[in-house]
Structures are given as structure tokens and as C-alpha cells.
Amino acid sequence: MTASRNSRVPPPGRVDAIVVGASAGGVDALSTLLPMLPRDFRPALLIVLHLPRERPSLLVEVFSARCALPVHEATDKEPIQPGTVYFAPPDYHLLVDAGVPGPTLALSQDAPVHFSRPAIDVLFESAAAVYGGRLGGIILSGANADGARGLASVREAGGATLVQAPATALVATMPAEALARGPVDFVLPLEQMPAVLRAWGGAGAV
């Protein structure tokens, strides 16, 4: 199922970064989505996946072996590079700062949001403030409302929005909450998402 396109969808090639939020079922969703992106994919991908705070993350090791794009755990004050996947580390919020000459990553141990640190809303809202209409936002499988407010902030800043079709998610709560918050540009199963991402980055039409 696809949502109707509207004037908020940036022209092809206008998206510099894509923020992604997931929780329960998110590893499986990302394992389908990320390996489908080509080596020449231009936008940076900033990802918050709810993780246990007390254990090191293995996401970089898991996804580096599966993806054509470089995969890193985000570090504080790191410049955001095109065509790179960044995962939020456990027990830190991941944010975007304006930076000079370009946007940078920031880490924070402020209070959890929706009982989560990292929280999806925190990343999406900070990225929307920096990138505005040059941002894409994606909500995948998950079990709470984190990300609904953040995706709305991406939409309100003029960015593009995409939600996993709830019926195709391992846990439908997070996509459903995002859709209940307001209209989105696309509602799709995982296998149809890469075409939208490539179009956002200027690598093909939707």
C-alpha cells in the first residue's frame, strides 16, 4: 500500500540524511532494508534502535558484514558523512547539531524518553531542526509510541516521511502510532522501501 504523494515530498536528490527509528522487530526489518541499498547511495542514515542499556551493541559488526555502505557506531562531535550508516550507541541519545562546515553527531545522557535512551523522537526532532526539507524520516517495527512525535516534526519541517505498513511489521504498534499522529508520504512493506530511498537520494524514481 502506498500513501498518496503530496507537495511535502522533496524532489529527487534533495535528501541529505535519513533518520530511522525501530524497536521490537527492528533488527529483522533493518536486515531486510539496509542490505538493499547500493554502494553509491548518497544520503547518510542515522538510526536509533532501542537497545538494552547495560550491554555493548553488536549492530556495527552485524550490519557491516551485510551492507555495501560503511557502518559505524555514532561518536560525539563526529561530522556526518554522506553514504554512511550511523547507529546510536546504547544508553545515549543520538542528536544532530548544525556544525561548521556541516552537520555533526552529538551524544547525550539526558533523561530517557518513552523509557528509552536512545530515543527516536530525540534524533528525529534534532535532525528536523538542522536539515529541514532535506531530511527523510522512517519508522519501522516497534512496540511503543516513540518516533510518532519525531516523524511529525520531520513532516512539519518539510521533510519526507515513510512508515512500514503495520500489517507487515513484526510489531505493529510503532508504525500505527506514527500513522495516527498525522499523514505520511509513503506507507510500504520493507521490500518496496529501497526504491523510495533511492529516489530521495537522487538515484531513481519512485
Automatic annotation (TrEMBL):
It comes from the Bacteria. Gene3D superfamilies: Methylesterase CheB, C-terminal domain (3.40.50.180). Keywords: Chemotaxis, Hydrolase. InterPro entries: CheB_C (IPR035909), Sig_transdc_resp-reg_Me-estase (IPR000673). Residues 10-204 form the CheB-type methylesterase domain. Its EC number is 3.1.1.61. Pfam families: CheB_methylest. The active site is at S23, H50, D146. The keyword Hydrolase applies. The keyword Hydrolase applies. PANTHER family: PROTEIN-GLUTAMATE METHYLESTERASE/PROTEIN-GLUTAMINE GLUTAMINASE (PTHR42872), PROTEIN-GLUTAMATE METHYLESTERASE_PROTEIN-GLUTAMINE GLUTAMINASE (PTHR42872:SF6). It catalyses: [protein]-L-glutamate 5-O-methyl ester + H2O = L-glutamyl-[protein] + methanol + H(+). This is protein-glutamate methylesterase.
